[in-house]
Structure formats: structure tokens, C-alpha cells
Amino acid sequence: MRRIGVVVPARDEEQLVERCLRSVMRAAEALAQSDAPAEVVVVLVADGCTDRTAAIARSIPGVEVMVVRAAGVGAARELGARRAIARGCSWLACTDADSEVPSAWLVEQLRLESLGWDGMIGTVRPDFADLTPTERDHWLATHHRGHPNGHVHGANLGVRTASFVRVGGFRALAEHEDVDLVERLRASGAWLIASDEVEVTTSGRRTGRTAGGYAGHLRRVTAMLGDMDPAVV
Fold first, then answer.
1. Which residue of 5, 99, 132, 215 could cross-link 89, Cys pair, CB 3.0 to 4.6 Å?
2. Domains of the chain, with CATH numbers?
3. What is the 3-class SS of the chain, one letter each residue?
């Protein structure tokens, strides 16, 4: 049976990691019941955690936990990917510990793999519970289903293992390791698709685990909206 690896880097995510991993396990169950079932290897990399992230992850059956000392998100994602590859996974699906994936997440990625795609650049949306009404309305007005923007998010990224290995995997970057990987995949001639078929919900917090990332993007949007009349957003 084919194997797909799910890689989740985490740093001090005890508040959100269970939600993330439960959603991944639901996606694994949906894949097992699909017309093209596959085994799922879930690897959470607890990167320099000082809270209960690792313990919570270990309490969820089917999750393999790697504990490392503050390696950084790029190195953590790479360690998880290499563990999944060593387990024989032909496809790697990446998300973040503050995110929640839809039940069809893995089914769709293996469908794309079967069609010959080397990678999926998936969309994310912030948890609307973390946004103000103005911010939510702005997001809805600027994002339209069926028109993925192609922005790269480590919270919703899939790649064929052979293509991943060919370009050298994730680099040990403090942030934007996902963008860096996609740039090298494109340069190598990999066949990538931007898709919003399985959009991932991610935290709408403004202080993330890296200086930039999605939290930084939301801070910029918040600052922009602060200068706008809510009536025209």
C-alpha cells in the first residue's frame, strides 16, 4: 500500500496542537475509506517546546513525535520530512500545528499525485473567530473560491517525495522555508498546481512563531484596514 507522510513542526502550541492533529487523523480516516486508500505516517516535530505540546501529541494514537532543541522551522520541517521518507512515503503533506485541515485534505493530494502533479500549493484562510468583523469582510471580499492566489503556505503544501529529494528538501531557514522549497521546485521543472480545493484553516493570531509568516501578513492587513473607512472595506 502507498504511504503518505504528514509533517507538522510545532513550537509551544499546546493550545492548538490537538485540534490540528485530530483534523489530520480525520483526513487519514477519510483516505483509508476512499477508493484509493493509503497508509498515513504522521510526524510532529516538537521544536524547542517548553510547554505540553509533545505530551499532547503523544496522547493521540498514530502520531509519531520527534523532540528537537530549537532547530528552527526549516530544520524542523526537514527532520519530519526525512523521517517520513525513511518510512517509505511517496508524498509529503505539510501543515502547521496552529492549523486545521479539512477531511478531504489527503484524498485530494493523492488524487493530484495520481494525475502526475509534483506538488500542491494550497490556500489557507484565517480562523474567523480570531478576526474583527471588518477583517473578516475584507478577507471574504478579496478571496474567491475557484481562484487560488498561488501564495505558498507551509500550512497547506504537498510535494512528491522524489521531487522533494531531487531539489534538496527544506533548508534550515528561520522562516519562508516553504517559499524557498517551491522556488527550487519550479526551477527544477517540477509540475506544481495552485489549488483551493482543500483549504486549510489557520490561526488568525498576530504574533506567530517566526518574525514574519502568516501572522506578519495579518498584522500588515490589520494596519492597512486601520487606515480605511470600514464602510468601504
1. 5
2. 3-127+145-205 (3.90.550.10)
3. CCEEEEEEEECCCCCCHHHHHHHHHHHHHHHHCCCCCCEEEEEEEEECCCCCHHHHHHCCCCEEEEEECCCCHHHHHHHHHHHHHHCCCCEEEECCCCEECCCCHHHHHHHHHHCCCCEEEEEEEECHHHCCHHHHHHHHHHCCCCCCCCCCCCCCEEEEHHHHHHCCCCCCCCCCHHHHHHHHHHHCCCCEEEEEEEEEEECCCCCCCCCCHHHHHHHHHHHHHHCCCHHHC
